[in-house]
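TEACHING EXERCISE
Course module: macromolecular assemblies
Task: Read the component lines below, then compare them to the predicted structure of the full complex.
Student: A.B.
Group: 4
Components provided:
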Amino acid sequence: MFSFCTDPSVLAAPAWFACYLTTGKLMLFYASFGTVLLLLAITAPVALAFGFAGAAAARSRVTPLSWLGKIYIAMVRGVPDIVFFLFFVIALDQGLEYLRHKVKCPEWDEPIRQGSDFIVCAAAKLPLSTSPQAWHEVYGFSLAVLTFSIVFGAFAANVLFGAMRAVPRAQLETAEAYGMTHRQTFWRILVPQMWVYALPGLSNLWMVLIKATPLLFLLGVEDIVYWARELGGAKTARFTDYPHADWRVWYFLALLIFYLAFTRVSEIVLDRIMARLTHGQATAAGEAQRKAAA
Amino acid sequence: MKTLILSTAVLALSAGLAMAQTVRMGTEGAYPPYNFINDAGEIDGFERELGDELCARAELTCEWVTNEWDSIIPNLVSGNYDTIIAGMSINDERDEVIDFTQDYIPPATSSYVALSEDADLSGVIAAQTSTLQSQYISESDATLLEYATADEIIVALKNGEADAVFFDTDYLMPIVEESGGELMFLGETVTLGRGTGMGIRESDGELKDKFDAAITSMKDDGTLNTMLIKWFGEGTDTY
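Instructor-supplied answer key:
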């Protein structure tokens, strides 16, 4: 990157580090922080939507719908994340390819499963093997977002389900006494009031989600932990201009600081949201807030 | 005239589509000098150079991807990429699941490396998981200590967690040379496996034939030997 970087072996430490920290490889490491943040930014709202749908389904008066919601919550919460990640992604990928195969190549007569191979016609591949690497990465990333959302959505569903039941019954009765329909009571009375009960549980989930991002590598997305391990390993002078001993401890220390800083910022933001949501609520904290203001 | 240009363009485009078969090459990227990520963040090494040359000879468009060693075969089988070119030795166990091209590196020797002359070679020996070497140690009297990457076995040796490491000589050579006498080769070298080849799905016979032909042509005109010497040094086995 800098003009003096042509022969790093003769540089003094500060210049050496300036060169080392700006190599293309380190840039990939920095970019992977963006990948993780992007994953969180997309996954959090999608998981919340899954959770909301799951919770609303679970408390529905339509029995099959309620079963569906409850099965979703129980099943996904009951399976270890890592198992779900490995199984679900492969199953989803092959399922999609199977459907595309049926649509696009009806004249294909060979079996799809040949021993351990999973063979679909070239036109059914997802993404097509001719598409550039970027698309493969986008596809892998989307699968990751979907998987994270389903897993964390199930936990969020349980939290929201509990929060919906925590809203004082008197509030709902009053709404009914005013002649509101079931739907109106749900949207106007229940949903606005439930967040204050849901937030502690949701903030826990957010923290766990931040810390679960290294699972990305299981899905072939190169995340910060992958790069820290790759970059930190000892390098000999034959294959790099920047040989160094085993630096994994420093790289992992950087990750530790990143995660701690990120969760700390999250805590501050969540505390603010909590204070806002508490405002005017029929809870002990809401009452305390009212007294402090008075 | 307009239609003529248009139809020529369509023809050229469709011909282009038919010719451009993209082959995705799967490698580990953590195994110098076979394959590694260079300072620019690109896949580099003997297999990168070899693979690009093979693709050129077979008239294929190749795209490189990295995958963790542990799941490199399952991901080939499920179609995430089309070949494994990652210093993988041909052996019967793997041959049951996938097919191999002919070898492009002669059967490799494996060596013990230790911190001192009197290290106990039947004590704790570190090796990389699911390699020929780890299998060899598990069948010997020594206690096997497995790690996911080759890098970690060297760390384990230096930390004293293992009495010695048992691994591919070509990988260990530069590390021993640059250790300044801290590390040393010990005991006999052992020849394992049937050479290194490219892994290809069993159902992909056509692709296998193309690469086989390309490897044969590189063996015949001596370019493969030149490449082997360039990356593995003068003393390496050639064809």
